[in-house]
UniProtKB/TrEMBL annotation:
This protein's name: diacylglycerol O-acyltransferase
Documented EC number(s): 2.3.1.20
Residue ranges occupied by any O-acyltransferase WSD1-like N-terminal domain in the UniProt entry: 13-281
Residues annotated as domain O-acyltransferase WSD1 C-terminal: 324-465
Alphabetic keyword roster: Acyltransferase, Glycerol metabolism, Lipid biosynthesis, Lipid metabolism, Transferase
Family under the similarity heading: Belongs to the long-chain O-acyltransferase family.
Catalytic activity: an acyl-CoA + a 1,2-diacyl-sn-glycerol = a triacyl-sn-glycerol + CoA
SUPFAM superfamilies registered for this protein in UniProt: CoA-dependent acyltransferases
Originating organism: Chitinimonas arctica
GO molecular function ontology, one term from the record: diacylglycerol O-acyltransferase activity
Length: 496
């Protein structure tokens, strides 16, 4: 429990969570939006009971935000009523994907009501013969890794779980994932490395006596300090991202789109054939889809590189089931200018390897901690400055590998959208679940009014990559035009 600075009944908000709270603005709301699709109808009353028993055990979901000067705190809501947060709705018309998309588009531009706890769940009861749960949770409550813990804590591995034994605490362990999946490749190894760096650097700053007693450690700590110093200088000198159709003055209206899921085993096969990770393959498809969108709109893309801000988990394993934000950011240069799908995968891999050895994540987490402790008038210029460095926020969150059930209803699919900060106008979300991979895109309506066109490019880019990989295996030159031709033939065959 943090020290109580506000008097009885209030808990101080951490500096990092305060930073995310104050990033909220009309043009970019700091709200994580997710959807859970069910194979059949979900029992609303049973869901309410599950949420009361499992969600509300986290005090944060019964607390509202209180702001005083430069500080913020969590305070129990004396008037809390779950009915203000769990709603049942119905879609109009054919109650299909267009109607659900319209509903979510309407929700994502609505600010949270800070007079109540900052989360809302909506049960859509008539979507394509089943139900959908739409969730909106403010970023100051938790990051994506923590919210996965909350999700797993609500669900069961079977339709009718045994009720005799008390449910075990949910804990998502990276060791349970396959060593080549996105979480193991990007999040955990980097998190462990940065956690060690943070610990060492903390000793450097705070234990001069320890250095005198152990002079052999001086070189190690000095090297860490030099690395951090060089990283700060490099980030400060990093030029702004180039102006494209994705970057410009923002409006207050967002648009979302989501993809049909890709089979994870096929993504693994392609990665294995090319000697790359799943993450390399997926991010290459993202770069290809963004490239295709820009070309369609007449933009020159030869040699173009744009950066994506990629969250990196710095959460210690002891805090895997704790709420709050424990991540930094790295800036990944996406090779938009590379046309050949195989060359693009290898270029993504090379760039990922370069950023893994840097200090960007720990620096940005430290920056958030500092600015969250300072007046808002200092935080906002800092956020604006760093938001010019990238064009998109891109996050890759691992979900359960096996099917899960919520209130007795089987979860068919999962989807979510990551918020953007400052002047960033696009978020790209990748989520794996039950051997499938889903893509979601959120854009500013003024810049990209039709994010579905980007979404359509993900699947097409993966198909091109599959065909190019097959050609390379057959010792044929990986010609993107040939891949396009094969793709066109396959589509014509399937249409006939």
């Amino acid at each position: 429990m943090l020290m109580n600075l506000f008097g009885s009944g209030r808990e101080s908000m951490s500096a990092v969570d305060t930073a995310w709270l104050r990033m909220d603005r009309p043009t970019n709301l700091m709200v994580i939006t997710g959807m859970m699709f069910f194979e059949g109808e979900i029992d609303f009353e049973r869901l309410r009971v599950v949420m009361e028993q499992r969600l509300l055990k986290h005090a944060r979901f019964k607390q509202k935000v209180v702001r005083t000067g430069t500080n913020a705190a969590w305070e129990d809501d004396p008037d809390f009523d779950i009915a203000n947060h769990l709603h049942r709705v119905a879609l109009p018309g054919k109650a299909g994907k267009p109607e659900l998309e319209t509903m979510v588009n309407d929700l994502i531009s609505v600010p949270m009501d800070f007079s109540k706890p900052v989360w809302q769940f909506y049960v859509v009861e008539n979507y394509q013969g089943g139900s959908v749960l739409v969730a909106r949770i403010h970023h100051c409550i938790a990051d994506g890794i923590a919210l996965i813990q909350v999700l797993l804590g609500l669900t069961d591995k079977e339709e009718e779980p045994h009720q005799k034994a008390a449910p075990k605490k949910s804990k998502f362990l990276a060791d349970e994932r396959e060593p080549d999946d996105p979480f193991m490749r990007l999040y955990r190894p980097v998190a462990k490395m940065y956690a060690g760096v943070l610990k060492s650097y903390g000793k450097l700053l705070g234990t001069s006596y320890g250095l005198m007693a152990n002079p052999g450690k001086l070189a190690e700590y000095t090297q860490t300090g030099l690395g951090l110093g060089q990283g700060i200088a490099r980030l400060a000198a990093m030029p702004a991202d180039p102006r494209t159709k994705f970057k410009g003055k923002l409006s207050t209206v967002k648009r979302i789109a989501w993809s049909e899921s890709l089979p994870l085993p096929e993504v693994k096969h392609v990665g294995k054939a090319l000697g790359c990770s799943i993450n390399d393959v997926l991010l290459s498809c993202v770069a290809g889809a963004l490239r295709g969108y820009l070309i369609e709109r007449g933009q020159q893309v030869d040699g173009l590189t744009i950066r994506a801000s990629v969250p990196v988990n710095l959460r210690p394993e002891s805090k895997l089931d704790k709420l709050g934000n424990y991540f930094g950011l790295v800036f990944l240069p996406l090779p938009i200018g590379v046309a050949n799908p195989i060359e693009r995968v290898y270029e993504v891999k090379r760039r990922m390897e370069e950023i893994k050895g840097g200090y960007d994540a720990i620096i940005t987490l430290g920056l958030l901690s500092v600015v969250g402790s300072l007046p808002n008038m200092i935080e906002q210029p800092a956020i604006e400055y760093f938001s010019t460095k990238s064009t998109a926020v891109m996050t890759n969150v691992p979900g359960p590998r096996e099917p899960i059930y919520l209130a007795g209803a089987k979860v068919h699919d999962l989807q979510f959208w990551v918020p953007q900060s400052g002047e960033i106008g696009m978020g790209v979300s990748i989520l794996s679940y039950n051997d499938r991979v889903n893509f979601g895109v959120m854009t500013d309506k003024k810049l990209v009014p039709d994010p579905s066109r980007i979404i359509e490019g993900f699947g097409a880019e993966f198909e091109k990559l599959v065909l190019a990989t097959l050609l390379s295996v057959l010792d044929c030159p990986p010609d993107p035009e040939m891949a396009e031709l094969h793709l066109a033939v396959l589509r014509m065959q399937s249409a006939s």
